[in-house]
Amino acid sequence: MKKSQNIVQKILSSHLISGAITPGSELAIRIDQTLTQDATGTMGYLQFEAMGVPRVRTELSVSYVDHNTLQSGFQNADDHRFLRLAASKYGIFFSPPGNGICHQLHLERFGAPGKTLLGSDSHTPTGGGIGMIAIGAGGLDVAVAMAGGPFFLAAPRVLRVTLKGKLRPWVSAKDVILELLRRLTVRGGVGWILEYGGPGVASLSVPERATITNMGAELGCTTSVFPSDDRTREFMKSMGRVAAWQPLEADSGAEYDREIIVNLSDIEPLVAKPHSPDNVAPVSELAGRAVDQVAIGSCTNSSLKDMLTAAAILKNRRVAPGTDLVILPGSRQVLAELARSGALATMVAAGARILECVCGPCIGMGMAPPTDSVTLRTFNRNFEGRSGTASAGIYLCSPETAAASAVAGVFTDPRSLGRPPRIVLPDAPPQPDTILPPSKKPEAVKIVRGPNIKPLPKNTPMPVELAGEVLLKVGDNITTDHIMPAGARILPLRSNIPAIAEHVFEAVDSEFPSRAKKKGGGIVVGGSNYGQGSSREHAALAPAYLGVRAVIVASFARIHRANLVNFGILPLIFENPKDLIKIKQGDRIAIQDVKGQLLKGEKIAAKAGGKPLALRHDLTSRERDIIIAGGLLNYTKKTAGKIKK
């Protein structure tokens, strides 16, 4: 008799290439679809080219331009041209700037229940809202998948989130994920996949489910997934893609490693206070505090339902004097429907500023708030300085709370507005978009590279002795924004590693790049959850360029740890976390016969300042070989015959 399976086990087992779905063990899965965005895509396609594969080998790959759309100089425009031509030549669909945010577009256009999706963006788990196993990864992992290689991951434990009840008026899906962040924290999902189930699931539409799975990234989990049911079919029919729908649910009697119960009826409007998504409080506790800026959009809350809800609140009202309201629809088709329905005119009449369909302020590309101000956003991250203004306080909330607060000019519980609006979504298929298919004559496509697109840095194999000075010591919850900042000033350098490396740890210690070069590289030490946040591989690639060969911390965030391995930086863990206190910046750490020690076992004997230091690693045998080879690209070239032609 076949054993009952949960949704995670069903999808992983149907895509399993090697390994076992046993928590902690390494498994390899086949990837059906990939996505990249322009902040990670240029480097990803340079890496794909370096593998010498003429066309992608996935069922579908899409290149989106949604991050670096400000063309204040030639750099971004050159990258966009390179991405368009590379997509055309290598068999990849291309979504040009202004067409929409990758996760919103992929949900509308390509997402399908039961499929696997690997994306070079940490919010790729948005696809879990439609019943996919959708995982964020570094660009090099995505490039390998496009070349036909498997994706390797540690088999996660599965956390069943049982939803009961129904959301009350003015409470939204954003409040659900904020409640989970309040309960579990930004570290609570590490090593887990969240699988949603229970009677409350049927009350949530696919866009609402996608909001929840999108911010699962902030929990640190591998991904999140919902069942595929009649609501999923309803959404896919409205997108003109009902043929791609299939039902998907857990078997009766399926087992989980843990279960938590969330009663949707008990949730109230919530807000995440600075400077962490898990610093959650009821909106009612902040009511009356002044708000300088409100932003509605991002891959978390830019669906048509979110936009129509905001427009309904703004109808016959004006944005408060002294408060700026900016709105970013998630896709061109959402914007078109807002225009057709009259909702766009309502927003404009209320005093909102309408930006193009991009990530924009969420990634620090424009709309930085004033000094010492409060900005209320429907986004997914509120790390210090992420808005572009170091002294601004970033608060995260639902579109309902955001629109109500924009009108009042102060934090406002949307329940104070009375009866909520009734939102009716169109059921007709959307208008054609501007996603470009790949060329049918790829041999005729000539790829043009602008002067800012520099060659890939080359990594060297692991030396016999790994030794160096502690270049920097940091604490807990260091984000990829700390390591490699985003924003309009730095993002255009994503395809120029020598230039962007000058900004590594800029917000923490502006002298880090010069010190690393002067010392000939070295080591970084830190606390727990090191590297949380974005999938940006530049947070590993640029330090590797500066000569960083090891990072020693109490614990790592999943994607960043994988990126360190991919670029030949050895991720090590303190055997005794209290040893971090003893180490000072400037101490010399040495590991003799590092290759031999890696091959021998998990324990690593080192010396810090001449005194013994006990370390360990949790590398699989494959990851160990990657580190020894000097990174995944070197390893892939060495084992190229193992990628199916």
Radius of gyration: 24 Å
Please summarize the sheet with the most strands.
7 strands, mixed, barrel
Mean pLDDT: 93
Strand line-up in the sheet with most strands? 20-21-22-23-26-25-24
Range of strand content? 15-25%
Account of the protein in words:
With 645 residues, the chain is α/β, with parallel strands linked by helices. The strands form 6 sheets. A 7-stranded mixed β-barrel has the order 20-21-22-23-26-25-24, surrounded by 4 helices. Strands 5-4-3-6-7 form a 5-stranded parallel sheet. The protein is globular. It starts with 6 loop residues before the first helix and ends in a 7-residue tail after the last helix. Mean pLDDT is 93; it is low at 641-645.
Blueprint (SSEs and pairs):
Layout: H1 7-14, E1 16-18, E2 26-29, E3 33-37, H2 38-50, E4 60-64, H3 74-90, E5 93-95, H4 102-109, E6 116-119, E7 133-136, H5 139-146, E8 151-154, E9 157-164, H6 173-184, E10 192-197, H7 206-214, E11 223-225, H8 230-238, E12 258-263, E13 270-272, E14 280-282, E15 293-296, H9 304-314, E16 324-327, H10 332-341, H11 343-350, E17 353-354, E18 374-377, E19 393-396, H12 399-408, E20 466-473, H13 480-483, H14 497-500, H15 512-518, E21 522-525, H16 538-545, E22 548-553, H17 558-566, E23 570-574, H18 579-582, E24 588-591, H19 594-600, E25 603-608, E26 611-616, H20 621-629, H21 632-638
Parallel strand pairs: 3-4, 3-6, 4-5, 6-7, 9-10, 9-12, 10-11, 15-16, 15-18, 16-17, 18-19, 20-21, 21-22, 22-23
Antiparallel strand pairs: 1-2, 2-8, 13-14, 20-24, 23-26, 24-25, 25-26
Helix pairs in contact: 2-3, 2-5, 6-7, 9-11, 9-12, 16-17
